[in-house]
UniProtKB/TrEMBL annotation:
InterPro entries: DUF899_thioredox (IPR010296), Thioredoxin-like_sf (IPR036249)
Top-level taxon in the UniProt lineage: Bacteria
Name of the protein described by the UniProt record: Putative dithiol-disulfide oxidoreductase (DUF899 family)
Pfam families cross-referenced by the UniProt entry: DUF899
Length: 235
């Protein structure tokens, strides 16, 4: 941990105001970037994707329900895995609590993994989540949206986050956005991967304000500390 200067209250206030100007500039830049995101072109989804869910087989169109907008979180949970990814579970802790707020804004949300439905349902029950979680095991959805890789793809370089990379797992995280118009046509409007989904990790903004921040520099990798919320020693 770095050594911080200890100063008078007035000196602290001067430093804090100077830093506030930088924070405000970042906020303005983030607002501008959000406006650019909304202006990105869309692509029509002509392929029909079908998922396995607790209510049976559901198409991509049916995941919208009565909403015109749909967010799908790509949760890392492979067919042979015994449980879901801890980091994706950290994301899910956040989005589960936001579900009623999203639906009030004409946005449906679903989580999709390649694990078979029985594994998904058992893990969801264990974690206490209520969001719709579906299996894409019999679908090309994960491959088409760049979050699942064959052994052959991983032997070379997997195409992830809009470029080739040495991704260490058969599954990868991400989020994709879709719009359905009155004619029932579906459009893929946006996807984000890797650190692009960091904003969904609700604990990080809180840690960033703590005196030691994320405190991850000495770890084998940044999120090595993350556990399922029922697996921390204090749980």
């Amino acid at each position: 941990m770095q050594e911080n200067k200890v100063v008078s209250r007035s000196e602290w206030l001067d430093a804090r105001k100077a830093f506030l100007a930088k924070e405000k500039e970042l906020t303005r830049r983030r607002d501008a970037l959000s406006r650019e995101r909304l202006a990105l072109p869309w692509v029509k989804v002509d392929k029909e994707y079908v998922f396995d869910g607790p209510q049976g087989r559901q198409t991509l169109a049916e995941l919208f329900g009565s909403k015109s907008q749909l967010l799908i979180y790509h949760f890392m949970f492979g067919p042979e895995w015994e449980q879901g990814c801890p980091s994706c579970s950290l994301v899910s802790d956040t989005i589960n609590s936001n579900l009623p707020h999203l639906t009030s804004r004409d946005v449906a949300l679903a989580v999709v993994s390649r694990a078979p439905l029985n594994k998904i349902e058992a893990f969801r029950k264990r974690m206490g989540w209520s969001f719709p979680w579906l299996s894409s095991f019999t679908s090309d959805f994960n491959q088409d949206f760049g979050v699942s890789f064959t052994p052959e793809q991983r032997a070379g370089k997997a195409y992830y986050n809009f470029g080739t990379s040495d991704f260490p797992s058969e599954e990868a995280p991400g989020i994709s956005a879709f719009y359905k118009n009155e004619a029932g046509e579906i459009f893929h409007t946006y996807s984000s991967y890797s650190r692009g989904v960091e904003g969904l990790l609700g604990v990080y903004p809180l840690l960033d304000m703590a005196p030691r921040g994320r405190d991850e520099d000495a770890l084998p990798f940044p999120m090595a500390w993350v556990r399922h919320h029922d697996r921390y020693e204090s749980a």
